[in-house]
Design brief:
3 helices, alpha/beta, 5-stranded parallel beta sheet
Length: 175
Amino acid sequence: MPIRMKSGKILCMAFNRHALQADLVANQGSAKGRLVMKLFRLGQALPPRVRRLYHPVYYVIVDIVMGISLPLQTQIGPGLILRHGQGIVISWKSTIGDGCEIHQNVTLGEKDNAAPQLRNNVTIGANAVLLGGITVGDDAYIGAGAIVLTDVPAGAVAIGQKARIISSPTRGHAG
């Protein structure tokens, strides 16, 4: 999260270099994770006029080719790990703290005009869905396939989903 002056210019590029280095170390075993984070940090470091030109290139490479929706407006702390990065969708309104880990097919989505806020060292398992203005505390773990609609305290483990029938077919079932 670069420090910006009122003009929009980045006051301190050292944070971006620090964040990028932490991202590269965190994603050592993942060429895809390393590339996505390099492109993300570069996009955030660019002045607004240049960023407007860079954005379509970033979108094509990261979103369309790599299958990761990670808007440049998203605030992400250093050391984000993208495990098997595919199908990841992150709202631009979300914030992600330092040292978090996100597995494949994770959604951090908006609900009622608000998005999840992850504190530091949060791990989110594959196929998890977090919606709305919830906060996930430091060192929390969201299990694979979990659907999270409420705050998760620091150090907690959130697992499972609860489906409920809201209607039933009026005709015989096909099959």
